[in-house]
Backbone:
């Protein structure tokens, strides 16, 4: 599957989970409220929606990052000059790529995509990091819904692919 | 707190209050009752600040609430969620035109609008991530969404 299909599948699974949850909750709602712990159910419901949303953003980012590195490596090897020193350097660069700070690699793309958009992708990365290492005492960084994360991340990859194919 | 941060909070708070006022007018004479409840948001960009959420009651039952999520929203200028116990919808504050991505591929500068339908500043609901159609929150749109998130539940 291509990156677009992978990203779409994450969204489809998210929607499937939400549909299942809604269907289940609707059928069970009378029971929930007749039980003494109805209030907890409401809390759990909100937490379920929030955590599903966050988990979907994390999954989208994982797919984005994998494909972003892959496409960046394609740039490195765009001119096939195997057997030359240039190729050896390119090969080493590609090998070390994933150890570079992601923000610095993203900055390179400012030559083809405006800096605001590159900044947005960096913000999504910060939000992703915050979701993983959440510290409730600290304020939240810029937030994003799973739908918007899909739109920005898929568009970014699409523009890179278009530039690579030219 | 820096002045520009204070100003950003003030703008966001005003936008949220204007949405609440509009909602109360749209739902007037339909048997709804409203209450404000103060909550505290803590955003990295602004630090802690207080803002109200709007609780919506029908027949003395809290059927839904409008909850401010924050002003630091990637690609937007603020977010408020319409939440019930079991469902939610996100409303985003956009400036006229909405977010744009500019590419410079093969020397050609092109602007790509992210969402369609953003023709003025205000609160919007994005229906589908594939169609990318944003609807301005007005009487009709809000009533339909409220109905959608509350009608199938006993609550």
Residues:
């Amino acid at each position: 599957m291509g990156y677009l299909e992978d990203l779409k599948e994450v969204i489809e699974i998210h929607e499937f989970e939400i549909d299942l949850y809604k269907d289940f909750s609707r059928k069970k709602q009378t029971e929930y409220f007749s039980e003494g712990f109805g209030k907890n159910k409401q809390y759990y419901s909100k937490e379920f929606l929030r955590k599903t949303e966050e988990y979907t953003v994390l999954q989208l980012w994982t797919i984005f990052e994998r494909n972003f590195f892959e496409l960046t490596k394609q740039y490195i090897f765009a001119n096939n000059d195997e057997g030359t020193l240039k190729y050896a350097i390119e090969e080493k660069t590609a090998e070390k790529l994933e150890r570079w700070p992601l923000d610095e690699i993203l900055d390179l793309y400012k030559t083809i995509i405006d800096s605001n958009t590159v900044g947005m992708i960096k913000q999504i990365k910060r939000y992703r990091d915050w979701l993983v290492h959440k510290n409730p005492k600290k304020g939240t960084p810029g937030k994003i819904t799973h739908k918007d994360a899909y739109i920005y991340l898929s568009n970014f990859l699409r523009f890179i692919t278009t530039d690579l194919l030219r | 707190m820096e002045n520009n941060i204070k100003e950003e909070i003030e703008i966001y708070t005003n936008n949220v209050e204007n949405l609440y006022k509009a909602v109360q007018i749209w739902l007037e004479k339909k048997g709804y009752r409203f209450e404000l409840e103060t909550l505290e948001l803590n955003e990295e960009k602004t630090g802690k600040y207080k803002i109200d959420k709007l609780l919506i009651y029908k027949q003395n039952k809290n059927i839904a609430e409008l909850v401010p999520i924050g002003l630091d929203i990637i690609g937007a200028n603020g977010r408020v969620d319409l939440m019930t116990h079991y469902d939610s919808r996100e409303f985003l504050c956009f400036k006229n035109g909405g977010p744009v991505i500019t590419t410079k591929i093969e020397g050609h500068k092109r602007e790509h609008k992210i969402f369609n339908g953003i023709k003025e500043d205000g609160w919007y609901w994005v229906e589908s991530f594939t169609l990318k159609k944003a609807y301005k929150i007005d009487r009709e749109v809000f009533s339909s969404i409220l109905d959608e998130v509350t009608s199938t539940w006993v609550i």
Notes: The radius of gyration of chain A is 21 Å. The interface with chain B takes residues 11, 22, 25-26, 29-30, 33, 41-42, 45-46, 49, 111-114, 116-117, 120, 123-124, 127, 138-145, 147-148, 150-152, 155-156, 159, 162-163, 166 of chain A (CB under 8 Å). The longest helix of chain A spans residues 38-76.
